[in-house]
UniProtKB/TrEMBL annotation, chains A, B:
Homodimer which binds Holliday junction (HJ) DNA. The HJ becomes 2-fold symmetrical on binding to RuvC with unstacked arms; it has a different conformation from HJ DNA in complex with RuvA. In the full resolvosome a probable DNA-RuvA(4)-RuvB(12)-RuvC(2) complex forms which resolves the HJ. Binds 2 Mg(2+) ion per subunit. Belongs to the RuvC family. Mg(2+) 2 binds at E68. PANTHER family: CROSSOVER JUNCTION ENDODEOXYRIBONUCLEASE RUVC (PTHR30194:SF3). The gene is ruvC. This is Crossover junction endodeoxyribonuclease RuvC. Keywords: Cytoplasm, DNA damage, DNA recombination, DNA repair, DNA-binding, Endonuclease, Hydrolase, Magnesium, Metal-binding, Nuclease. Mg(2+) 1 binds at D7, D141. The RuvA-RuvB-RuvC complex processes Holliday junction (HJ) DNA during genetic recombination and DNA repair. Endonuclease that resolves HJ intermediates. Cleaves cruciform DNA by making single-stranded nicks across the HJ at symmetrical positions within the homologous arms, yielding a 5'-phosphate and a 3'-hydroxyl group; requires a central core of homology in the junction. The consensus cleavage sequence is 5'-(A/T)TT(C/G)-3'. Cleavage occurs on the 3'-side of the TT dinucleotide at the point of strand exchange.
Length: 187, 187
């Protein structure tokens, strides 16, 4: 399966595409960062993130988008921007009927390094090894996005097809419900 | 000027359109709530919010969208959903080149009631009076959206046109920058 991992952020939003199945060597199809200028208005930054994510979805047609689950507990100053960037990534995927999976930072670290408390360097080193790259992807956000995609492929091998079918079905239902609601209102 | 106020939320996203200028009686053009089902996936809920906001933008063509500024400090459990819904509202507006203004809950309360600590009932009562409605808009999220729009019209009478010009200009610049970046990458 082909997974786009997204490490959400307004200044640097890491993106990485990994293909493969659990138990076999994985391949990296692409890695990068969607950047927006810190001095731009928040609305324009979100438009920039949307454009960037759309470009990656167009280019790689992933079957699933894995996004880091954002918590409000830590880093209060940056968490709002992270939540907003992740909302845009989830919106872009769901709009196309692509299922979205959320994984916590410690799930991702544990999946690729064996420890939920691993540091950035360790995650980067394991991503490099697992994808047989010549050097760790930079910046760390890009490596984290690849780690998210790897984590998803390894954690949910059986669940993924089911999840995709459910996502497509739910999107159709939601569209039908909203169409019915609009019809009701304009009567 | 015509302002769409948005009180962001995933379950109930209040929306209200107010027209007028500071110092003159204001008119309500529309009020409502965009709802999404709590048991839907987060991605689909964001798609539902997007559809709802787009519908209001299409219907009323506001010159500005006023959104409640979300803080991470309080209500940790709901704040992430609020941040995500507000991101979608800001994205929808900015994509069209419509400027976005953020106001804190206490700025809004102070603008319509004279006290930054006013309760929901007081805000509802003042919105009813200021817009000459027959009854307070329900639910409270709808009244809060109208209060946001009123707050914006009263707080920034001179600033608004400037802000609109700046937003349009910045959108053009951002589009040009991104086009240049894509061009650079594909060379």
């Amino acid at each position: 399966m082909r997974v786009l991992g997204v490490d959400p952020g307004l200044t640097r939003c890491g993106v990485g595409v990994v293909e493969g199945v659990a138990g076999r060597p994985l391949s990296m199809l692409g890695v990068g960062v969607v950047r927006t200028a810190a001095d731009d208005d928040i609305g324009l930054r979100l438009v920039g993130i949307e454009r960037g994510i759309e470009e990656w979805l167009d280019r790689f047609s992933p079957e699933l988008v894995a996004v880091e689950r954002v918590f409000a507990q830590h880093n209060v100053r940056t968490v709002m921007g992270t939540a907003q960037a992740s909302a845009v990534a989830m919106l872009c995927a769901s709009r196309r009927g692509i299922p979205v999976a959320l994984h916590t930072p410690s799930e991702v670290k544990a999946a690729v390094t064996g420890s939920g408390r691993a540091d950035k360097a360790q995650v980067g080193a394991m991503v490099t090894r697992l994808l047989r790259l010549s050097a760790p992807p930079k910046p760390a956000d890009a490596a984290d996005a690849l780690a998210l995609a790897i984590c998803h492929i390894w954690r949910a091998p059986a669940q993924n097809r089911l999840q995709q079918a459910v996502a497509e079905n739910r999107l159709q239902q939601a569209v039908a419900r909203q169409a019915a609601a609009v019809k009701g209102r304009t009567r």
